[in-house]
Amino acid sequence: GQNIDQPTEMTATEGAIVQINCTYQTSGFNGLFWYQQHAGEAPTFLSYNVLDGLEEKGRFSSFLSRSKGYSYLLLKELQMKDSASYLCAVALTGANNLFFGTGTRLTVIP
Amino acid sequence: EPEVTQTPSHQVTQMGQEVILRCVPISNHLYFYWYRQILGQKVEFLVSFYNNEISEKSEIFDDQFSVERPDGSNFTLKIRSTKLEDSAMYFCASTRQGLKNGYTFGSGTRLTVV
Question: Helix or strand or coil: residue A110?
Answer without folding.
Answer: coil
